[in-house]
Amino acid sequence: MKRYLKLFAYVYTLTNIFAFMIALWVIRRFDVNLPIREIFFGVITNSLLIALSIIIFKKTWGNGILNVILGYLILLPVPFSINRMYDGYVLRRPALIYTMGLIYAVLYTLVLIYAHHRNKKDEKNLNHLIKEKDDSTKQAK
Which range of residues forms the domain containing residue 16? Predict the structure, then answer.
């Protein structure tokens, strides 16, 4: 929990800076008044979701592909939250973000599969070398 809260603090700081820069841009570009309360609650919600998804992405135990899928499922509401934060002036098409995220998820999953097979191959080679070494030390005795 301590690691999650520390990560949340970092993500919240960065998200808050970006959110208010985007809000300033929207206010100047479209000449509208944005509700600060929605931006504030949206930043908190998005920061919680992003921090949780980072924790899930970085998990080393369990199935890596399922961790990626679960991480992206956690991130699903973020574009809708951003759209609500800025009253539809930003991200008019959240489907584009989901498409880009899906492409990234597929590429990331392929990298994970490749790394998994490569690690299994290295593990087999190392186990074979250990077995040969054990056999040679037994024969020497």
Answer: 2-140
| Residue type present at position 94 | P
pLDDT in tens, 101-111: 777 778 777 87
**Length of the chain (residues):** 141
pTM of the predicted model as reported, rounded to 2 decimal places: 0.69
pLDDT in tens, 10-25: 999 999 999 999 999 9
Q: Name the nearest CA neighbour of 44 among 88, 83, 13.
A: 13
Please tell me the total count of domains within the chain. Answer: 1
Is the CB of residue 75 less than 8 Å from the CB of residue 50? yes
Amino acid identity for residue 55 in this structure: I
Spell out the residues 6+ positions from residue 101 whose beta carbon is closer than 8 angstroms to its own: 72, 75
